[in-house]
Amino acid sequence: MTRTAGTARSADAPRSPLLSGSAWRRIIRDRPLIPLVILLVVLVAVLELAKPGIVNGNWAATTMRTAIPLAILAACQTLAMLTGGIDLSVGAVASMAAFLMATQATGQGAVVAIAIALVACAFAGVVNGVAIGVFKVHPLIMTLGMSLVVLGLMSVYQLAMVQSGTLVPDPIQWLGSGISFGFVPNSLVVFVPIAILIVIGLRRSGYGRLLFAVGDNPIAARLSGTRVWQVLVALYVMSAILAAIAGILIAGLLNTATVSLVEQSVLPSVAAAVIGGTSIIGGRGGYAGTIVGALILTVLTTLLTVLEMPEAVRQVLFGAIIVAVAAAYTRVTGES
Amino acid sequence: MHSAPDLLLDATGVAKHYGAVVALRSASLAVRPGEVHALMGANGAGKSTLVKVLTGGVRPDGGTILVRGKPFAARSPAEARRGGIVSVYQEPALIPDIDVRSNLRLTQSPIEATRHWLAELGLPDLDLTDLVRDLPLATLRIIDLARALAIEPDILMLDEMTAALPANLTEHVLEVIARQKGTDRSVIFISHRLIEIAAVCDRATVLREGQTVGVVDVSHGSENRIVALMLGDMVRDLPARVADVASASPRPADAVPRISARSLSAGTKLADVSFDLHQGEVLGVVALEGQGQDELFDILSGSERPGGGELLVDGTAVSFRHPADAIRAGLVYVPADRAEALLMQRSVRENIALPFTTRFGAWGPIDVGGERRKVDKAIATLQIDTRAAAEVRRLSGGNQQKVTIARWVAGGVRTMLCFDPTRGIDIGTKQQIYQLLRDLASEGAAVLLYTSELKEIQLACDRAIVIFGGRIVAEIDVADADEATLLRAAYDLRPEELMPEDVASAAVAVEADHPSLVGPT
Amino acid sequence: MSAGIGMVPGARARSGDTAGAWARRNVWTLGLIGLLLAFLALTKVIQPNYGAPGIQGLAISILPIAFAAVAQAIVVISGGIDLSVGSMMALASVTSAVLMKDQGDVIGVAVVVGVLLLGATVGAINGGLVVATKVPDIVVTLAMSFVWAGTALLILNTPGGGAAPWLMAIISGPLGSPWLPKALIVLAVVVAVVWLPLRRSTMGLALYAVGSSRLAAFRSGIAVGRTKIIAYALTGFFSAMGGLALTASGGVGAPVPGSYTLQSVAAIVLGGVSLAGGRGGVLGPIIAVIVLALVRIDLTFLGVDPNLSTAIQGVILIGVVMFGSLVAMRKVRA
Q1: What is the pLDDT of residues A39-71, one digit of tens each?
Q2: Which of B19, B209, B428 is the closest to A8 by Cβ?
Q3: What residues of C are in contact with residue B106 (Cβ under 8 Å)?
Q4: Record: contact A12-B358, CB cut-off 8 A
Q5: Residue B18 lies in a domain
Q6: In this structure, are B13 and B94 located in the same domain?
Q7: Which of A63, B224, C20, C183 is surrounded by the most beta carbons within 10 Å?
Q8: In terms of residue numbers, what domain contains B107?
Q9: What are the tens digits of pLDDT across the range C54-86?
């Protein structure tokens, strides 16, 4: 029998190992963080060249402060995309969290207000998850519909709350916009635990494995005993809560809250995940890349502002970069 | 290999690399007009790449291809078709969401000729306004073949044409192929089924590791030579018994069966199935295509709920609502289609460890050390080649199938449900899988094995049940389970009746000028 | 026009039996027509003096989004999705408004033709990138939505420019009967002239084929890449129609995309186009657009907060899709 095995093995296996000619390909495929970090460093260098002296501790803190909410929203996309889904409701849900928190804070105090916001968002997540996981509604449609519903309900709520006004509690402002020691944004207090949990959780937890499994092949996941709907419900609830956290941080950062506060961050959040190397068809990706992707987008925005480029140019460039980066990933991972 | 001027197709030195991986080193294929030519090789030998090169799916890195003496370089199936080469693929090239007639229009196929061939192939009454997605797979393959025949290509390539076909359609197909002999056109026939090769082919080209290693004149007894070429230096007697089945441990008379099916039924397909599966045995399931075996395995694996009847596991009635319920009861399932079972972009390790983390309670941190031990043990047990382990899609078909089995072996198997686990994989790996099933049984597991290759029953099973029309029509001890007996039973025929296979093989045998291997004449 | 658009290609009504088969295959579209009639009746009940002027206003207001829905339907049928429809509309709108402002009729016509060509070109670029990079359609078109929106902003920073008077006249008012708004006729004519002949051609079959099964289409000898690019070019063309309709109905160019992309996706899903590709037509999405507009009108008549009607639109979208997938699940089980 051992002889049989040996023969079968040589007949079955690829004839030779991957050779050094494709080393760079392997780096992008297996260690996408390296080229991403290089790109980030290059952008920072260009920024410093464009406006010498801009890159300092305070700059780093303000950049991170802006990038952190985007990175959290992009976490929603990363997790959803790993399962082959997408969450377009993060903008509406995050805005709802910010607006609920700010309106309730006037009467109830900060803690209760935040709790109300989180519960409302979690509920939206449950509805998303049940529709997608149990009723098999396409995630794009479901989350799009959900953002319409949330936006509409919040507009009605806004009219009802017109008297009470909004208030972003001081601790939230401290968290969202504060900088300690001259270079540490306070929002790291929230972000670092989230990032560690997601990065490690995706690799070393049963649930993380299932996210990849469901995205790679839902039939195989089911046949192996995965109750796919449970995974999806948990995913969209998690996504909604993360969106709520991002929304509250943005309210703190801008010291304001409206019903469409976060709407314009939806597409950049998808962009950050794509740049970070997560495949939108599912089964491949990770959060570390997404974080760098959010930083890249933020630095790029600063760079374009410094160069006094109009908003329009920023948009064109954003689009071009996403296509280019995604094309590069597809080239290196799409063989076979 | 010399190239004769009268060759219809003459491909020499065809090479194709994917990055550093060599799919074809130097493949040659010479086909004469009017012959049915078999293209053979173990999995990963390069058959499918060669087919893709010839039909324009892939551009070769080197080599020359001549069709009727003229250079041939197709960049798409459409160009290949204009050059006279048409292929019928394993997955029918029919558009699901439009009707059959529109499909014919799209490929500019003559409708009357297609109808003629449909009738010849046993589907005279097909309604061309049916939507393709509403038709069964076997019908689609026949339509695909009829459409290809209708445009009278110089070279017709058939890739596992008879897989997924019921026996009566197989018989029509083989007859039609045999009729191509002696015309000025030829057929390239790709199949794992040596019986069919022997029945209809004139010559066989054998590929191994991307190279043509021999061309064999097909005649009585040439199978051993073909197998020898496919395996390289390993010459083995194919129908060797994997283990001494008869000496399998006798079970105590009062043992509670692992699975007791009592009058299981499902829809119109499964009418009334009762059987017991005991510890320590491999129970074979024999059936023609579509006799209810799919539904039976779906019920046992928890994918589908029975319409009626009762299922007992270890003597307790169970009702599975989800595969997870079946797995908890110890019933694990190996599907035929590896694309259904594997996470193609993930590693071998993650694929094998997948069942460990599916329970809600196991969503938390992974015990990395324990997982590695179990996975490594399963990899060793199944002798999986882990050189391309980072992504399962880069493994060969045989290794992929081993991964789907290893997944369950890693966690300890009590009852394994295997649905045609050796479909489309090479002989060496098949042999290993039979051995593994025997080993599992001797360690006390119970195995239910459906196979479309009747030969496997005697190689791996203790006894077999035969399903026909959704009912069990026979139970056969392994000692009596020769192919002829099984086939008769599968048709639900009494011994004295003449089988359709006999008629077909007799007809084919005259053409092929050698005795039939399908059944006794 | 109504007979053909939503039809599955190849299923010509040859006899009573095939008409029955046609009906079975187009249950969704027939249901939508029923829904449309029901909503028209409901509107009349809620607002007894709703009549010809209301219909005309309705027709003008839905014209841009109806074109957007047709645009989206074509690309989704061929197996893609285009998230840059709204941006392309904005681009077409500002380009036409800037070039047309204070110009004569001849130049105006040239501008319209030019903008439609621009739309087809821009769409073809989207398609070309999808084919060349092999990046999922959704990513490419999402990215390109930034690019085209940015380009539109570069051309015109704030709403401005102007529309030729004849262009505005062509969609406003009725033709013949006051119940027959010109806008609806424009929509019907454009769809009938561009889409219907195409859909009956081999090219149209190829669009469905590529969306239904890429591999089978390739093996059937269809040039998959070229077909996808053509689908995207058609989407660009109809997006440009939508952009022109925006300019014509507003009288100025609108540089900000608005929510047309997402509305177009919602409309095609309600209109019975499968997001998986290969199934559906353009009649369903157009009717869906009208139904959604009627819902909004009815809610306004009923005195419901217009904000709430956004939410209700979302609920309808989700509800219909859920209903559709429930029906599909039933079918699989049966």
Answers
A1: 999 999 999 998 898 888 888 999 999 999 999
A2: B428
A3: 202, 205-206, 209, 220-222
A4: no
A5: yes
A6: yes
A7: C183
A8: 9-231
A9: 888 899 999 999 999 999 999 999 999 998 999
